[in-house]
Amino acid sequence: MFRTFQRAQGFSLTELMVALLLGTFLVAGVIGVYISNQTTNRVNQQISQLQQASQVSFQLLSQDIQHAGYSGCSNVMVPQVFNALNPPLDWWNNWTGGLQGFEFGAFPNFSNGAVVPLANTDALMVMYGRGISASVVSHNAAGNPAMTINQNLAGIVANDIVMSCDSKWGLIFQVTAVAGNALSHAVGAGTPGNRILQFGVAPNGTPYQRNISSDAGFVMPMESAAWFVGTRNNLNSLYRVVVVAGQLRVEEIIPGVANLQLQYLQRGNANYVDAPAVVDWETVMSVRAVLTLEDNIKTPMALGMRQISQVVNLRNRREI
Q1: How many CB atoms lie within 10 A of CB 288?
Q2: Could you please report the per-residue DSSP string of 263-275?
Q3: Euclidean distance between the first and the last CA atom of the chain, given in angstroms as a whole number
Q4: Are 275 and 261 in contact (CB under 8 A)?
């Protein structure tokens, strides 16, 4: 009996090449989908980070702008405020109604050289009374201590720049000593220090002693803050500089910022304008801020996705 054997047959070279080509296409497709998903995930994470950063920054910026100009006395305007501090007045102790903007990098040295301002960006300076105001019980500018308040809930300490006001005028001075509810503002102590104790100016320009009245008189620490984009350690960031007891504090708010543009709406106008077009800063009722973040080389984003804008209305403005 004879057996018949059949030769086993495999794939031909052509079939192997076709299978290999099809497999390559399949693997390439899977890799493409994976890379696309990874890119989408990175973009989504970047967008989420931008949103979180913008929320934090605009929350702080909005708070400063909304408080700008608050003095405890709603009727106090720039011509009614006597600044007793020694000249030259720095940006953080020169009352201009509580708000002032600067254009294209032409702004004061907010950080005393710690951060270099970024060219072609805008900046904003705000000033307002901070914390809880104290009622003035008595004030004798030539006395020592000069002022007695009802209670120091605001935590006023020596070297604080404070603003005091009554129903007719306002006074900016530096506290040189605190003893319980007694505040002193001597001449020749502290930095910048007080230049004079005669806080009144007669029509002929002659100074005379003028005191804050105990009738509706208030005093509170003066908060000064500046917002700008600057460069430190080769990184552009949004910075907030505050002054506490005469000392500068530089705070980095958001890293990787390319630009900050600010515009202002004045009372009676329909359009926002740049800082040089503002005639009177006390007439500014609203601020529009546009923050642009730097692009990421690995995950480029359209300009519109990197820009965040917000409009903030000022609360402490008189209606004339």
Answers
A1: 14
A2: EEEETT-SS-B-G
A3: 123
A4: no
Cα distance between residue 152 and residue 136, in whole Å: 11
Q: What distances in angstroms separate CA 55 from CA 62, 218, 235, one per listed residue? A: 10, 34, 21
Residue type, 149: I
Taking the C-alpha atoms of residue 224 and residue 98, their distance in angstroms, rounded to an integer, is 9
Q: What is the DSSP letter of 224?
A: E
Secondary structure letter of residue 187 according to DSSP: B
Eight-class DSSP state of 119: T
3-state helix, strand, coil in the chain (%, to 5): 20, 35, 45
Q: Hey, what are 195's tokens?
A: 């230049």
Q: Is 106 helix (H, G, I), strand (E, B) or coil?
A: coil
Residue 164's identity, in one-letter code, is S
Give Cα separations from 157 to 126, 179, 254 (angstroms): 21, 9, 31
pLDDT value, residue 273: 96
Name the helix (H) or strand (E) containing 48.
helix 13-67
pLDDT greater than 70 at residue 54: no
In the 8-state DSSP scheme, what is residue 171? Answer: E
Mean pLDDT of 120-147: 90
Q: What CA–CA distance (Å, rounded) separates 81 from 85?
A: 12
Look-up: residue for tokens 């900050």?
A: 260
Contact 152, 165 (CB under 8 A): no
Q: Give the tokens for residue 62.
A: 């909005």
DSSP 194: B
- Note the pTM of the prediction, 2 decimals: 0.79
pLDDT at 52 over 70: no
Residue 177 has pLDDT above 90, yes or no: yes
The helix (run of H) or strand (run of E) holding residue 304 is helix 303-306
The helix/strand/coil state of 71 is: coil
User: Domains of the chain: which residue ranges?
Assistant: 47-313
